[in-house]
C-alpha cells in the first residue's frame, strides 16, 4: 500500500501548524462531522488509532472481566487485543472462505451464555453481511461492534459501511485508503454515547480542552471517570479532511485496478482472487488471492519469486490464535482461518500501480501456476 499524499495535504498540515492550534481542536471537529456524514453515521469521535477506537467501544459497552467477546482470529491482532484491554476473554470464530469474514453461523458456533459482544471485521475492505449479523446480534441480545478499519468507501446493501451500525471503529493508518498518518474514529448514532466517548478519549473531562481554551470565562473542569488520552491532533485532521475529499476517486481507481487483475488472472488455474460479495462492494483496501490445491507452487515460494522479480507482495492476513501472544488460548477448530492465512497472499494494489506493474505480477503468477 502506497498512501496518496500530495501538496494539498502538505499545505493543510502547514496551515494547521501556522494557526497555532495543533492539538485536538476545530479541524478535528470538522473532520469528525464530515467523516461521519460520509459513512452514514450521526456522530464521529476522532481518536489516536483504530485500536483505541475498539478499546473505547468495549469500555462504552461496559465489557469486562468474566465476559466473552467473539472475534475473528483472521484479522490484525489489535482486534483480539482490544478485548484483553478491558479484561474480557476473546473467543475466536472461523470465517467464510470467500470473504474472510465471520458469519452468523461461525459466530453462533462459538457463542456461549457469557458472550456479551461480537467484534466483526470488514476484512480487507470486504463488507461482512451486515443485515444478517446485525439481526442475529439483536436476537442473541449481544452488542455488535464493527471493526471497519479497512472499510472506508466500501458498501453493503447499497449503503456505506457504517450506516445503520450501532458502533463502528475506523483506521487512518497509512495502509488504509484514507490516512492521517496514525489515527482512528468511532462512529455512533446515539448522542449520549458520542458525548461519553469524547470524555473517555480526553481523561474523562466534563469539558473538552478546546472548549475550555475557547471560553472567555474561567472554566474549572472536573474528571468524571478514569479514562484515557486517545486524542487526534488538528494536524492529522487537516490531512484527513483532504484525504476524505479524495476517497471516492481512490475507491474508483482501486476497483478499476482490481477489475483488471480479475481479467488477467481469470485463466490461471488454482488461484482465486477476492471479489465483491453479492450484497456489497469492497474498496479493495487489500487485493488478496488464495492458492488452491491445483496451484503448482506454495505460497512462500510464490512470495520469494515475486520478490526476486522486484514485486513487493505480502503474506495473507494473519491468524491471531497462531501468534505467541495467544499461545494460552485453545480455540475451537478454525480450518478456514488456517487455510487462508497459510495459502493466501496480498498483491500490490495502490494509486501508483501501472499496467506494466500488474502485467509483471501476473506473469510471475502464471509461470508458477504451471
UniProtKB/TrEMBL annotation:
Originating organism: Micromonospora costi
Q: Which family would the database say this protein is a member of?
A: Belongs to the DegT/DnrJ/EryC1 family.
Q: Which Gene3D superfamilies match?
A: Aspartate Aminotransferase, domain 1, Type I PLP-dependent aspartate aminotransferase-like (Major domain)
Is Transferase tagged as a keyword? yes
Name of the protein in question: DegT/DnrJ/EryC1/StrS family aminotransferase
List UniProt keywords, sorted A-Z. Aminotransferase, Pyridoxal phosphate, Transferase
Keyword GTP-binding among UniProt keywords: no
Q: Which GO terms describe its molecular function?
A: pyridoxal phosphate binding; transaminase activity
Query: What's a BP term from Gene Ontology annotated to this protein?
Result: polysaccharide biosynthetic process
UniProt cross-references to Pfam families, sorted A to Z = DegT_DnrJ_EryC1 (PF01041)
What positions does UniProt annotate as the active site of this protein? 176
> In the record, which positions carry N6-(pyridoxal phosphate)lysine?
176
What cofactor is this protein dependent on? pyridoxal 5'-phosphate
For this protein, the record's PANTHER family field holds: DTDP-4-AMINO-4,6-DIDEOXYGALACTOSE TRANSAMINASE, TRANSAMINASE
Matching entries from SUPFAM superfamilies are given as:
PLP-dependent transferases (SSF53383)
Amino acid at each position: 500500500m502506497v498512501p496518496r499524499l500530495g501538496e494539498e495535504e502538505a499545505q493543510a498540515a502547514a496551515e494547521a501548524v501556522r494557526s497555532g492550534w495543533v492539538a485536538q481542536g476545530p479541524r478535528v471537529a470538522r473532520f469528525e462531522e464530515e467523516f461521519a456524514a460520509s459513512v452514514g453515521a450521526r456522530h464521529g469521535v476522532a481518536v489516536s488509532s483504530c485500536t483505541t477506537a475498539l478499546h473505547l467501544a468495549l469500555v462504552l459497552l461496559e465489557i469486562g472481566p468474566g465476559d466473552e467477546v467473539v472475534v475473528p482470529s483472521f484479522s490484525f491482532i489489535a482486534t483480539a487485543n482490544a478485548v484483553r484491554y478491558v479484561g474480557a476473554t476473546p473467543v475466536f470464530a472461523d470465517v467464510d472462505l470467500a470473504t474472510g469474514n465471520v458469519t452468523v453461523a461461525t459466530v453462533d458456533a462459538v457463542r456461549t451464555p457469557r458472550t456479551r459482544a461480537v467484534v466483526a471485521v470488514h476484512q480487507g475492505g470486504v463488507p461482512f453481511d451486515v443485515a444478517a449479523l446485525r439481526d442475529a446480534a439483536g436476537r442473541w441480545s449481544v452488542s455488535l461492534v464493527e471493526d471497519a478499519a479497512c472499510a472506508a468507501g466500501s458498501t453493503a446493501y447499497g449503503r456505506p459501511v457504517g450506516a445503520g451500525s450501532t458502533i463502528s471503529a475506523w483506521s487512518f493508518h497509512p495502509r488504509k485508503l484514507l490516512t492521517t498518518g496514525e489515527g482512528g474514529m468511532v462512529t455512533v448514532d446515539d448522542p449520549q454515547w458520542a458525548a461519553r466517548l469524547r470524555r473517555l478519549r480526553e481523561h474523562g473531562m466534563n469539558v473538552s480542552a478546546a472548549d475550555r481554551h475557547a471560553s472567555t470565562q474561567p472554566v474549572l473542569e472536573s474528571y468524571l471517570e478514569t479514562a484515557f488520552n486517545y486524542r487526534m491532533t488538528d494536524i492529522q485532521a487537516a490531512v484527513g479532511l483532504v484525504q476524505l475529499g479524495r476517497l471516492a476517486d481512490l475507491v474508483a481507481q482501486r476497483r478499476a485496478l482490481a477489475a483488471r487483475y480479475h481479467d488477467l488472472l481469470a485463466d490461471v488455474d488454482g488461484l482465486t482472487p477476492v471479489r465483491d460479495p453479492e450484497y456489497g462492494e469492497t474498496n479493495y483496501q487489500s487485493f488478496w488471492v488464495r492458492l488452491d490445491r491445483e496451484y503448482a507452487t506454495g505460497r512462500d515460494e510464490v512470495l520469494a519469486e515475486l520478490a526476486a522479480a522486484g514485486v513487493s507482495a505480502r503474506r495473507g492476513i494473519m491468524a491471531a490464535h497462531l501468534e505467541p501472544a495467544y499461545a494460552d488460548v485453545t480455540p475451537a477448530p478454525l480450518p478456514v482461518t488456517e487455510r487462508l492465512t497459510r495459502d493466501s497472499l496480498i498483491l500490490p494494489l495502490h494509486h501508483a500501480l501501472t499496467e506494466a506493474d500488474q502485467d509483471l505480477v501476473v506473469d510471475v503468477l502464471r509461470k508458477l501456476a504451471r
